[in-house]
Amino acid sequence: MAKPKVSSDWLAGCAGCHMSLLDMDERIIKVAELVDLRATPITDLKEPDASGVDVGVLEGGINNTTNEEVVKTMRKRCKVLVALGDCAVFGGVPALRNFFTIEESLRRAYVETESTDSEGKIPDDPELCHPTRVRALSEVVPVDVFVPGCPPDADVIFYVLAELAQGRVPVLKDDLLHWH
Amino acid sequence: MGTQKITIEPVTRIEGHAKVTIHMKDDGSVEHAYLHVNEFRGFEKFCEGRLYFEMPSITPRICGICPVSHHLASAKAGDVLQGTPPPRPASLLRELMHMGQVIQSHGMHFFELAGPDLLLGFDADPAIRNVVGLIGANAPLTLQAVNLRKFGQEIIRITGGRRIHPNFAVPGGVNKALHPKERDEILQGLDQAIATIQTAIQIMKGWAEANQEVINRFAVFSTGYFGLVTPQNSLELYDGDIRLVDAAGKQLEKFNDQKYLDYIAEHVESWSYLKFPYYKKMGWPQGVYRVGPLGRLNASDQLDTPLANAEFKLFRAIGNGRPVEHTLYYHYARLIEALFAAEKVRVLLDDPDILSTDILNTHKDYRGEGVGVLEAPRGTLFHHYWADETGKLTRVNLIVATGHNNWAMSNAVDSVAKTYVKGPNVTEGMLNRVEAAIRAYDPCLSCSTHAIGQMPIEVEFIDPQGNCIQTVSRG
User: Fold this and answer.
1) Which end of chain A has fewer beta carbons closer than 10 Å to its terminal beta carbon, N or C?
2) Is A44 within 8 Å of B44 when comparing Cβ atoms?
């Protein structure tokens, strides 16, 4: 059997879930044996293979138009979509922004902050994405596996990847849902 | 065919989200290249209304690679805000946790993020130019690298309960003393960690020797340099005055961190969500400076640990009495700092106060405003809070490590693109060098876009009418 292809990306989060993945330490070598790591933030392929991947893993919620595109592309190209960590599962800390308008948040950052000089303005180049309301992945696309935690433990991530690599759907309960 | 634009999206093996656009001239040379940091999160706004003592838990979520920086800077701001300077043992313990972070972050960057370029080559097949490729090329070395990161992460876990987003520092001190067994557990792994860092330094020096020409033409330019120092102008990572030196290495300023607003300001460009800090007295953009490993070593006169200081002298000799300007020497500087941090772990663990239980100052002298500053792995981090009499935050200002390097990264991208990218047949290896210019600074774009969050790469060629003629992406 060919190794299952796995692709991942990070959205509106902090990269901590990917760091927790690295926290499986020497087991990362085991994971590299079990799966074919395709486009991820720590590899150099830029997006999930057009021909599809078996597992797509996304960290972070959706807080701008670029994130929306990334999520939709990943959903289209992966068989099983994993929401990794609290931000992907329900929005997490970045979703606190939803208590304010986007305009208010942008003004604070780029105009009002005490260290910003008098020429501060909200960046608006067409190259840039537009901030949106912060959403969990499941508010935008169907999600197959939810892995909560901020971040989820390395043991949990290892279990999830190992199960998926062997063609099983991971079931998270008891110790695997333990909050440290 | 007129002006073309190449877009690299996403930029990989960096933290966060960015893209690069390279605007080309008719003759296939580069007109200008831009680094767009493409995410905005808004911590400065949405922390308003939270209680100041929640901030050491909230702000680490700015960045999962260096959460300890935000955790500690936040607690330091809280120390000042509620008027509780921490007892000495608490400061030592915070510094210990911080050294764990510097070791894991710097170690991971060298091996897992930048290493594939140095060890496998800028032009290696992008499908294997990553940490898995490194495992294939040199499994024992990769395992050593994994264990170095583990050593740093375990220091964080032992002090703060967990490796990522620990719960340890509070305004006024820390919430847990160090048990002698825990001290011994850390000490047990220290020699191996130092040996691994020394191996990395040898690899880096070997690479530098073999690639001298690359280093000398790869984004070499003048700026000021900025970082915390001890009273004797030695490198300092946890607490000290801020020193700014000019392009010749002459001291421009040395100031108390609470006064940062008198010295630095931030400029905004419409094409990036990441702001551009600069030295106020010189103005924008003359007052730009660099932070992080290269910036700090250029702003220091010596290091206070023997092995790292010996290496520091070799490093500074490169500049021949002046600061070292080469972007690629960030990698060397980063490893020297990792060595310093590892030696510092021993100094801290040998201090009799490290096992003390006098770890919290509860005698408040509430002021309602505080600044917390330290050297995050990527540069100087500022947290500034204002709270009302109930402790609710009314304003929050953050200047994050990577931000200080925004001008330098942008300039490095432009410089490397002009040196290496030639149309019409643009290769993946050319574009990877542009990304490598960014990687050298080890940007943390989630941090810098606390404010922001994502860094991807794709290249578009645009004609003079603005139509996209060709898109080159990796994937």
Assistant:
1) N
2) no
Phi, psi of B405 (to 5 degrees): -90, 10
Cα A104 from chain centroid (whole Å): 25
**Is A126 a member of any domain?**
no
Alpha-carbon span B76 to B169, nearest angstrom: 9
In this structure, what CATH number is given to the domain that contains residue A26?
3.40.50.700
Note whether A115 contacts B63, CB cutoff 8 Å.
no
Cα within 13 Å of Cα(B383), Cβ side: 32
- Asked if A25's CB is within 8 angstroms of B150's CB, the reply is yes
Closest-CA residue to B65 (of B170, B195, B165, B176): B165
Q: Are strands B393-399 and B458-462 parallel, antiparallel or unpaired?
A: unpaired
Cα–Cα distance, B269 to B286 (Å, whole number): 15
Where are the domains positioned within chain B? 4-38+403-473, 39-83+368-396, 84-220+326-363, 221-299
Could you tell me which residues are beta bridge partners of residue B15?
B444
Token pair for B220? 């070499």
Q: Which of B413, B34, B6, B442 is nearest to B219 (CA)?
A: B413
Residue (of A3, A42, A32) closest to B143 by Cα position = A32
Q: Mean pLDDT over residues B111-130, rounded? A: 88
Tokens of B284: 């924008």
In this structure, are residues B43 and B451 in contact, taking their beta carbons and an 8 Å threshold? yes
Within a domain: A118? no
> Which domain does A42 fall in, by range?
5-98+133-170
CA distance B64 to chain A (A): 4
Number of domains chain A contains? 1
Domain B84-220+326-363: CATH class, spelled out: mainly alpha
Name residues 117-136 of chain A within 8 A of B (Cβ): 117, 119-121, 123-125, 127-129, 131
Q: Do B268 and A108 touch (CB under 8 A)?
A: no
- The tens digit of pLDDT for each residue in B8-64 reads 888 888 877 888 999 999 898 999 999 998 889 999 999 999 999 999 999 999 999
Let me know how long chain B is.
475
**Nearest-angstrom CA–CA distance, B397 and A109:** 8
Token reading at B440: 């050298």
CA–CA distance, A35 with A5 (Å, rounded to integer)? 6
Of B341, B318, B468, B387, give the one whose Cα is nearest residue B9. Answer: B468
Could you say which of A32, A100, A115 has the minimum Cβ distance to residue B45?
A100
Distant-in-sequence, close-in-space partners of B181: CB < 8 Å, separation ≥ 6: none
- The answer to whether residue A158 is domain-embedded is yes
∠ CA A29-A87-A161, rounded to 5°? 25
Q: Please report residues of B whose CB lies closer than 8 A to that of A96.
A: 46-47, 58
Of the two residues B153 and B461, the one the predictor is more confident about is: B153
Say yes or no: A179 contacts chain B, CB-CB below 8 A. Answer: no
Q: What pLDDT shows up at residue B453?
A: 30
Partner-chain residue, chosen from A17, A49, A115, that has the shortest CB–CB distance to B64: A17
Is there a domain that residue A19 lies in?
yes
Q: Which residues contact B339 (CB under 8 A, 6 or more apart)?
A: B194, B197, B198, B201, B305, B307, B308, B311
Identify the pLDDT of residue A46. Answer: 84
Q: Are B348 and B91 in contact, with CB atoms under 8 Å apart? A: no
